[in-house]
Structures are given as C-alpha cells and as structure tokens.
Write a structure and sequence with these properties.
This protein is α+β, with helices and mostly antiparallel strands and 638 residues long. Among the domains are: 227 residues, no CATH class; 188 residues, MetI-like (MetI-like fold). It is built from 20 helices and eight strands. Strands 3-2-1-6-5-4 form a six-stranded antiparallel beta sheet, with helices on both faces. It has a two-stranded antiparallel sheet with strand order 7-8.
Amino acid sequence: MDWLKRTASLGLGVALAFVVLASGWLAGGVAGDLAAEQRQREAVLLANAISASLAGADEAAKGQRLAKWKAEHAALESARVVVGREMQASTLAADEAPRALRREEKALFDLANELRAAAETNVAEGTTRKRTLRVEGSGREGAMTVSVPVLVEGKVEGMVQARVRASGESTSPGGGWAMALALVAAGLAVGAFLHIKAERLLDVPRGIAVLLLVLGTVIFQQQRLEQMAGTTAASDIAIGKVQAAAGATYARSGAPALAPPAGEAGSPWDTDGYGRPRGLVDAEGRPLAKANLAAASHTSFLKKSFWVIGALGVATLLFFVLGWAARTARALKEHRVAYAYVAPAMIGMLVLVFFPFFYGIALAFTDTTLFNENLPFRERFIGLGNFFNILGDFDIVKTTAEGTVVNYQNFYWTLMVTVIWTVTNVTVGVTFGFLLALALNTEGFKGKTIYRVLLILPWAIPNYITALVWRGMFHPQFGVINQALQMFGLAPVRWFDGVVSSFMTGLVTNGWLSFPFMMVVILGALQSIPKDMYEAADVEGATRWQQFRRITLPLLRPTLVPAIVISVVWTFNMFNIIFLVSGGEPGGANEILVTKAYKIAFEQYQYAYAAAYSTVIFVILLVYGYFQTRLTRATESY
C-alpha cells in the first residue's frame, strides 16, 4: 500500500496546484476581458456622442463642437470628420481642416464609404446585418480608434473618427495571486511531505492539513466569484460616468436635444458594433436592470467553469492514484527515442486535427453567429441548447394552407435521407466491386491487367471533377442522358425537380466513384487466400457455393468489414457529390447531414448550430464504427 499512498499524496499536491492556478488564470482572464470591454465601450460611447452632436451642423459648427469635445474630455486624443472627399473638421492642427482628402488618405475615404453602405443597408432592410462602426485597438492598453457614421434622419452624412485613450480607471480586480501562490506552495509541500512519509498518510494532523488546503481552494474560488460580481458592477458605473459626462458636453455643444430610440430605455450611445443599444445604462448614466443580469451571467459562467476545473482536478488525482501517471512516466523514459521520432507528427496532428476538432465541439455549446462572433466566450455560452434544438425538433410534417407538406429542413428528415443515401451507395459499391473482383480473380481471364486499369480510373479521377461531369450529363436540356432518352423516343427528365430523381443522380454518381475502391480491396483479399484450401475442398466434394460460403466469405471478412466501415464513413460525409451534383434539390429534400451543416454555417452564418450538427454527425459515426467492429469482430483473425 505504500506506493498507493505515495502516489495519492503526490497527485493531491499536483491536483490542488492545478485547480488553484487554473481558477486564478480563468478569473484573471475574464476580468481582463471585462476591463478591455469597458474601455472599448467608453471609446464607442464617446465617438457615438460626438457623431450625434455633429449631425446636420455646418462646417464651422462642426469645428467648434469638436473643439469643445476635445477640451472637456481628456481621454479624447483627436477627432476628425470626413464627408465625401473632404475632411471638414479635425482637432489636429496638422490636418489643416477643412480641406480635400489627399491621395494617401484614400483609406479614410474607403472606410467612410464602407460605413455608409453598411448603415444604409441596415436602414433599408430594417435589420442589423452589417457592422456600422470600426474599432481599431484591443482596449487592453494604449488608445483605440473608433469610426462611426454621422446619421441625419436615417441618412449618412459623413464619418467621425475619434481616437480615445484608456481612461486609467481600471475595474479589473487586483490581488488574489498571493493567496493562489501560497495555496500552490502549501499543496505541493504537503503532497511532497506525505509522499516521503507515506506510512503516516492517515494521521489526523496530515488529514487536517489536507482538509485546510481543500477549504482554502474553495475560499479562493469564492473570493474570485465575489470580485467578478464587483468588477461587473464597477464597469457599469464607470460607463455611467462617461455617459453622464458625454451627455453634459452634448447639451452644451448647441446640438438639438436627443430623444432615445423608440422602445429603448438605455443610452443611445452605448452600442455594440451594429449600432444596437446595449441597454445597460440609461441616458443619465444610471445602471439598468439588464446590467444586473449581465453581472449575474458573468458570475454564473465563472462558477460553472470552477466546477469543471474541480472535476479536472479530481481526474488529475485519479490519474495518479490509479497508477496511470507512473506507467506514463515509465513509458516515456523507456521509449524516449521512439517518442522523439514521432513527436513532430504528434505536434502536427495536435495543431491541424485535434485543436480544430475540440474547438468545434466547444463552439457547439455557444450561440455563435456572424453577428456575435467577436463577443467573449462567456457571453455566447448556452450549454446544450443547440443539441436540444436539433434533436428535439420532431416536426417532420407540417400543415399549411396548401395542405400537409414535408419539412425538408428537419434534422430527422435529413438523417433519414443520409442513412438511405449511405446504405444504398455502400450496397451498390460493395455489390459491383465484389462482382468485378470475382471476375478479375478468375484464372485464365485474358486482358485482366487492362481491365483493372480501366476499372480503377473512376476512383483515380478527383471526385469533384467526376461530380461536375455527371451534373452536366444530367442537365435537363443539354445533358447526354436526356439526349439518349430522346433518341429512343422517351421524354426528357427534369432530374433535379423530383425528390427521387434528384436522389438517383447522386446515387449513380457516387456508385460510379465507389465501386473501384471496393474492387481493389476485395481483389487483394481474394488473391491472398491460399489456393490449396480450394483444392482440398474440391477433393472433399464441396460445391462452388459451399466453397464461397465456407472459405471465401470468412477469409474476406477481416478485410471486407473494415473496408465497409470506411466506405460508410466516407459516404455518410460525401459532401462533394451532393453539393456539386444535385445541390440537395429540390428545396433541400436531398441534403445529407454534412451538406446541411455546411449551409447552416456558410449560408445562414449560424456557426455554433453548424458545429452542433457536426458534433452529432461525429457521435453517430463513432457509435456506428464501434458497434460495427465489435459485432462483426472485424479485427479478429480467423
């Protein structure tokens, strides 16, 4: 038992150190993000307020109002107004405004046009689809440059570009790290001492020490939670001060009184990147009820994260207690040369495969879209919401004014189509591949080498080229298939207008692509079967069917089943054929899961929902592959 006690004591120290450091790092990161967000909100608020004060003013009034803003706000380093091809006003003497823009200032002209187009598009569509401000700078340090349009009765008059430096009033909590380092040092010290004195592991004093360490870790986490709640509240108070000061300057600038947007109780200047008021502070700078909800969400996110970190800490402890750490250390030491050789490949897999994979899974637990992808992770986290929406939607059939119709956008319809697509395609590929392999394996078959080369060509040609060729062949007017039908007096078929006919276009194309692979795999397996087994069967009087059933099929199984599993995975995710041949027509009826995930991500811009879709696809294939290999014993020899 000594080794168990020693391992447990060392694991205890490492686990406590991990929990404390990870909790402190996460809390510090969230606090830093909040501080950066606060500074960015201050800069955006100030730029929006300046823009509102300049709306409809003439050149002289714009210059005077800019000077007032510069005089009354120390955080404002500079501000300039661009209208068309002119710089009408600026607080920088070097700009010599008003004047025409110079050639080297083309970027200002392009940016003003970009913001104007975005604002006019949003107004015309009645949406907030395009970003109407540009922020340059992280907000963590230094100054930020904010560019916003000047709106006059919904029309864009020009652009204000304000450079705002950090106010110096930080709401990020300090301290805490001294306690964290003390807990880490104490945990490692106690763990090391218990490791040396393993025989006295269960003594009361040492048990009390362990208990105090765990309690100290909990207190540390609770302290960080309280600091986070205070940080969020302090951030809104700081924004309120900027709002109040901006409101006072606006009132003294001579600009007309500003009414808040209809239905909005918050400040019209504290907006996101799309010009939407956040609703966290009112026009006088007082925090609103929504601000309390935001503070609660930040604290809730951190609390849930601490639970996850605690679970990882327990897993770390079990990693030591169950002896996995010792075995891993021995393996690394014993096979260090081999690990050194494979390290570059492992690093490449980690960066190119595993990181995108786990990032996609993490993305599935958020509500990330095109419009909020720049928000911190904590504000986008929604847990299992996407999976509930995907798996909980059973409205495959809908009743409308025109009658009962099938909802082709439903997940279960798409899953059904994907399963039918996979089963039919694998059946076609395996059947034709099997028959061709048996034919090419026939003794005395002349010209088999030429046939092998010809039959493998469909697989050798890139599948997207084959898909485009077959799409052209299925063209309703100029396609060679309809031309052939008309030669025999048959009517041409509009292949992509019907659910079944459109499905057949993909089936034929993918069948053409898939049989060569199965043919090559099965042919290689057939040639590896010893011929003396068939000779012995002939001596015993076995028929050809008995030889096929008792010799060929059992010996093909270790090769055939893994090939079928691979074919199922490939076909299940055969993006190119569906996307390039039928496009999922008509109306998305022939989409498969992977093409639906692609369109959700890059046509509807719902990135998180598409990531959840992809995660469901991965789980389906993982479960299928596991049970397929277990039930068929594909990896066992015979």
